[in-house]
Amino acid sequence: MSEETFGRLLREARQRSALTLERLSEASGVSVRAISDMERGRSLPRPSTLTELLDALEPDEDQRRHLAQASTPRADQVPRQLPPDLAVFRGHENALEAVHGFTDQVGGQAGHVVIAAVAGMAGVGKTTLAVHWAHQVADRFPDGQLYVNLRGFEESARPLDPGEALGGFLRALGVASEDIPPGTEERGALFRERTASRRLIVLLDNARDAEQVRPLLPAAGCLSLITSRNQLPALAATEGASLVGLDVWTREEALAALAARIGEERCRAEPDAAAELVRRCGFLPLAVAVVGARLSGTPQSSLRDGVRELREAAPRLDGLTADGRRDDVRDVFSWSYRALGRETARFFRHLAAHPGPGATAEAAASLAGEEMRVARQRLRELTAASLLSRDAEGRYVMHELIRSYGIELMERERDDRVGAEVRLLDYLRHNARSAGRFVSRFPSGAPGTPAPGVVRVAVEDREEGLDWFRREESAVATALRGLRDPRLLRHRVDLVLEWVGYNAVAGRWAEEASAARTGLEAALVLDDPIAVARTGAHLARALVETGRADDADEPITVMLGLLERLPTEHQVRVERNVSFLRGRQRRHTEALEHARRSLATARTLPGTDEVARSLLGVGFCLAMTGDHREAIAVSEEAVPLLREARDRSGEASVWDSIGLAQQRLGRLDDAVVSYGKSLRLSEEVHDDYLRAETLDHLASALLELGDTPQARAHWLRAADLLSGLKVPRADALRAKAEALRA
Hints:
This protein is mainly α. Helices cover about 60% and strands about 5% of the residues. It has 36 helices and seven strands. The strands form two sheets. The protein has a five-stranded parallel sheet with strand order 2-3-4-1-5, sandwiched between helices. A two-stranded antiparallel sheet has the order 6-7. Strand 3, helix 10 and strand 4 form a beta-alpha-beta unit. It is elongated and about 95 Å long.
């Protein structure tokens, strides 16, 4: 939507809340000028700014959703993914001076790539320094900023796969999801191509090692900033990265940072107490930030009182004090934690169970089993206490050290961690089911009932559904990787099944392969033949579509090995799925054998729906193996049954098979008519995959009829559709079209 629409909605929301510009600015922390510019339609807020405004305005959920939709930037706007800068940034002056020197190198030498890596221990302020630096030089990089947390050292999840990070970057650069290739190498090549003519800042936060970083480096002319606990010498050796080591603050830097947070007057009034506070923080920036937030919230208390409370805080965070430079980091966290109200403290502990780098408000509420109104208040309190921060997308981020502390508390208080994780998985599953109704016709899993306390998101159309899926993509990936309790196996399988449709529509075949493999592993442990059959089929399909057809043999073998344990209707579907997959592997004789077995078993079932779909499979396989007259007869038998079942997609497929058989019999005009019927039906049901298949066949028939221009146009259209679905065969179709160029 336009800036004018957002401005109007923002002004109406402010007026409903009876707030002046000044009052809204005070409540949100957003400047009066910025709010005024938004209301006058001159600008749109970043996601993090939008969250601040919405928290201050406290609209209902429908109004919040409309404001969020209206704030979506146009596709031609540059990415602005940097987390907010810290207004009270202090210290690390030498490091900051050094990194500013690297900025001057960008563009100074043809083909020169500028990479700077900031290394140091957890909580030392690596991200804060990098973000501060990036904001200071952002005006020198007019094409925007990209940011990703690579999760290199988080205990709750594996490091982020570079391919997944590249997918996010490409979408931020305006590449549609359907146009993003499946492989990391191909994504990296496209990323370098898209950044070749741009001046961007790329901030790679919390990197594990050089191998994780290399695919994410942009083209020359951009500035790459990397933070890591490791020094990354390999990156310096092979990519020419400049390395900056970051240590804890000096005593003077820590005192200056504390004064910036609580006021210089308070520090001057009690210098000894201030000095002891920062010493007990071990001069660690994260700990000083937490202490500063606690003291700023109690301006009436003395610093001596703070020192006394901090001394009494317990227990100690033993695992974080082994280096001897931090006297008691857990004491610092404990001090802020004890200041929380009982319910907010419980909310904090449950939020620590989120496995990803950032949680949406809805996911956070589901973890704690809270209503959205209450959850938003809890999130505001935790953010004010510096126990949470917000990223550029408005998600709530918990530092890994604080997360570890929260998990310790969860265990100490004997909270039901598995119950919280069940609610998170149910949130991701059941809302995917609701959103999926607008996004895909793919069959989902069993409906079931979500656990009490799970937030249900209102989704009213396809765009809202796609938006919800995009916001929670990273949470699903980390949940499937990070939530490993055996009691969650069923929930993991169900979650995988509900996300298949979105992954297929968005062409996220690489992500689908990873998710389906996780689901298959869980189904095997559960010894659930039906779940094995379904997840195995999804894994095999994803492998085929990513160009790894031979690798699909493994899940196919597993599926067939459990065939006799399946109910009859599922045996029919497995044989039909295997037939489809063998066809994609060009093993058409085997495909026909499985299709015939599927049909024979389907005829033993009541009703005709499964018979119709199995006839469809047999007809296609017969057309591919050369028995064209029987293919037509079998396919024509399927047509009325598919119509009776109201299976428009199946009917589209059967007309494609009829056309293929007619074409190979030399009945080209009849084939063109049949292909036309298939195209009209597949367009009705938005089946782009089948449309591409039929366009391929139609193009070859038209070429035989001598209509070269139309054949070329249809192949190009088919290639575009398959490219949108990230299917490698798109290149072959495009090559056919280009071979016909006059």
